[in-house]
Design brief:
Strand content of chain A: 15-25%
Largest sheet of chain A: 8 strands, mixed
Shape of chain B: flat
Number of helices of chain B: 13
CATH architecture of chain A: 3-Layer(aba) Sandwich
Radius of gyration of chain B: 24 Å
Helix content of chain B: over 70%
Distance between the termini of chain B: 12 Å
Shape of chain A: globular
Number of strands of chain A: 12
Strand order of the largest sheet of chain A: 6-7-8-3-9-10-12-11
Bound molecules: adenosine-5'-diphosphate, iron/sulfur cluster, magnesium ion
CATH topology of chain A: Rossmann fold
Order of helices and strands of chain A: EEEHEEHEHHHHEHEHEEHHEE
Oligomer: heterodimer
Number of strands of chain B: 0
CATH topology of the domain at 92-272 in chain B: MetI-like fold
CATH superfamily of the domain at 92-272 in chain B: MetI-like
Structural class of chain B: mainly alpha
CATH class of chain A: Alpha Beta
Order of helices and strands of chain B: HHHHHHHHHHHHH
Helix content of chain A: 25-40%
Chain lengths: ~325, ~300
């Protein structure tokens, strides 16, 4: 499978009145065509920063280094015009909440305006037909009615589904999702995730999903990265990371899931202002916190099947190939 | 929804009743005997005997007790009879009816022009903050806020009528007479309106739905003139209705300067002539307009944005 997105050594430092905020401390990952890459971590870990960068939104106070290669273009080097051409058409965005729907426009208008701009379709009839087609694909019972509805006329779950329709209507190559489907009841969430899976399989769409909800990761992500304080601590196939977590942070996250008793991890993340060589999980780590010596990680341990762990206690089982 | 409107209409009636009562008593405790004034008006500067004044007072019912006069006046109002002007003898309602269209047209045209000019300028200022246009509109707004309307009116008359001799400054015989007073009103309104549109638009530009619109690759114009414009409509409409009311209230000064035959001028003449019935009727009329426009704007909201909540 071809690489669609390749992020290399991405670092983001925000300049703030409190000092240098290390939001991302050099992360790397690849997303292949048709693959869903999940990034999980608690709030403040840097997830939104990743999404914003992938969408080409750069804060004025952000110092950025690294590479974000999308289909041969380095997104960090593109000028505004070329970047803009990618949005909607090549790179789509699935927002978190239904506050992303304009309250005064119908669902139909949201879809048709997107189609019109990105696919250069002019005829109203064709636009409407396409919109109804995508609403049908999202299994609305009455697509025509949804087409003519304003957001306030639909239930929360239906609006979430409408967001999916809008985000996917041009079938972009890559969809970025920042905390999608959080705070929904599990039934609704499951059905939406199922729909996403079907849609992306049908059109071979790649996705990057960023979330603090391991349920979402477990259900639809092919690969997963666990992010802690701006760095990846564990990456690999989702089933490996979730079923055989090796990093103590990943293990604590899994223990904190509702079905595992919701056992919280002791302590707090040191925060993005923390600037110190060495494992930033050490103060909370069951083994590391007992030792005085700093745990400094130079390279991740590879435990096979592209499963990497950034922890000194995990022994290399394979020679680490060039990750990238 | 209907309950809400019923409540609003009831409120309006109470407000109007308060206005009637207040003006009535205020008028009677201010100086100037109305009977003498009528007499002066009728017989000019001749010597007027006290008998004449007494006769006039009893004719107009001015010598009865205040309370009797008050209830009598309330009763009449309820039947739609606002009495005759003490000065001209014409029913006050007829005079108001004759003058109001002039005032209304002035206010409406100026607010309309304000809306057309200020909305796009405000939206662009919001989209391109601190750029050229934004700086210019900020400057103009600060400039306008600090100029009183009569001063601007006099400057305009001086430039366009006296110096350039382009526009008439007096009365209302043909449409060109509208230009100067409308210009004064519109200029005074636009600067502030632009800033209101701008600040509302900035808020909306930061909303999640506009961010999502950008992320979908929509063009700047589509975002500004569909997504933003639709959502600033209600707050801007509120503000414009306020401007409209201010234009009507401000008509007293503007109409005096431009000799405009509207209710502002009528009011000014009534005050200087101590025409009590006319003043009472006009105060009530102004109050009624304020209430009516508020009610109308509320109804428009609901019409435009049916998701507005009725729970108070
Ligand atoms: N524009 C900014 N300026 C300064 N600090 C920022 C900015 N945006 C985010 N941060 C900080 O960067 C860190 C990562 O934030 P974010 O990417 O939003 O994390 P997440 O989405 O995982 O909660 C946080 O400490 C946050 O406070
Ligand atoms: S590197 Fe050391 S401190 Fe960090 S997680 Fe592993 S054992 Fe704990
Ligand atoms: Mg976030």
């Amino acid at each position: 499978m071809k690489k669609l997105l390749s992020v290399k050594k991405l670092k983001v430092v925000y300049d703030s009145s409190a000092g240098k905020v290390h939001a991302l401390r050099g992360i790397s990952f690849n997303v292949k065509k048709g693959e869903i890459f999940g990034i999980a971590g608690e709030s403040g870990a840097g997830k939104t920063t990743i999404c914003r960068l992938l969408m080409g939104f750069m804060e004025k106070n952000a110092g950025i280094s690294g590479q974000v290669d999308f289909n041969g273009d380095d997104l960090l080097k593109l000028n505004y015009k070329d970047l803009y051409r990618l949005y909607g058409r090549k790179i789509g965005f699935l927002p978190q909440s239904i506050a992303s729907l304009n309250p005064l426009l119908t669902i139909g208008t949201h879809i048709t305006e997107t189609l019109k701009k990105n696919l250069k379709i002019k005829k109203k009839k064709i636009l409407k037909k396409k919109a109804i087609y995508i609403l049908d694909a999202l299994e609305f019972s009455d697509s025509r009615q949804v087409y003519n509805s304003f957001p306030y006329q639909l239930s929360g779950g239906m609006n979430q589904r409408a967001l999916l329709a809008i985000a996917f209507c041009c079938f972009p190559d890559l969809v970025i999702a920042d905390e999608p489907f959080t705070g929904l009841d599990p039934d609704v969430q499951n059905r939406l995730l199922e729909t996403v899976r079907i849609l992306k399989d049908k059109k071979n769409i790649s996705m990057v999903i960023v979330t603090h909800d391991l349920k979402v990761i477990e259900k639809i992500c092919d690969k997963t990265a666990i992010i802690y304080n701006g760095s990846f601590v564990e990456t690999g196939e989702t089933k490996d990371v979730i079923k055989t977590p090796l990093h103590p942070y990943t293990q604590s996250l899994i223990k904190a899931m509702p079905e595992n008793g919701m056992i919280p991890t002791w302590g707090f993340a040191p925060g993005a202002l923390y600037d110190d060589a060495g494992c930033s999980f050490q103060p909370r780590c069951p083994t590391g916190s007992k030792e005085k010596k700093k745990h400094i990680i130079n390279s991740p341990a590879s435990v096979g099947n592209n499963h990497y762990v950034w922890c000194l206690n995990v022994k290399n089982q394979e020679s680490v190939k060039d990750l990238l | 929804m209907w309950q809400y409107f019923l409540k609003r209409i009831l409120n309006t009636i109470i407000v109007l009743f308060g206005a009637v009562t207040l003006t009535f008593f205020f008028m009677h405790f201010t100086e100037g005997d109305p009977a003498t004034i009528i007499a002066l008006d009728k017989y000019g500067g001749q010597l007027i005997s006290p008998e004449v004044i007494d006769r006039l007072a009893s004719e107009e019912g001015l010598n009865r007790s205040i309370f009797v006069q008050y209830t009598g006046w309330l009763k009449l109002i309820c039947t739609g009879d606002f009495g005759h002007s003490l000065r001209s003898g014409i029913p006050v309602l007829d005079e108001i009816r004759l003058c109001f269209p002039y005032t209304f047209a002035l206010a409406l045209i100026s607010v309309f022009i304000t809306a057309i000019v200020a909305t796009p300028l405000g939206i662009y200022s919001a989209a391109y903050q601190n750029r050229f246009l934004d700086r210019i509109t900020r400057f103009i707004a600060s400039f306008q806020v600090s100029i009183p309307n009569f001063y601007l009116a006099i400057i305009f008359i001086f430039i366009f009528s006296v110096k350039l001799k382009l526009l008439p400054s007096f009365g209302c015989d043909n449409p060109t007479h509208f230009i100067l007073p409308v210009m004064v009103l519109a200029v005074l309104q636009t600067g502030f309106t632009i800033r209101i549109v701008r600040s509302t638009a900035i808020e909306i530009l930061e909303s999640e739905y506009v961010q999502f619109a950008f992320a979908r690759g929509l063009s700047m114009n589509r975002i500004l003139f569909v997504h933003v414009l639709k959502n600033i409509f209600i707050p801007v409409l509120t503000f414009l209705s306020l401007q409209f009311l201010m234009a009507i209230e401000g008509s007293i000064i503007i109409e005096t300067i431009f000799a405009w035959p509207g209710i502002g001028k009528l009011f000014q003449e009534a005050v200087f002539g101590r025409d009590f019935t006319m003043i009472q009727a006009l105060v009530l009329f102004f109050a009624a307009i304020v209430c009516a426009i508020n009610l109308l704007v509320d109804m428009l909201y609901i019409f435009i944005n049916r998701s507005i909540s009725f729970i108070e």
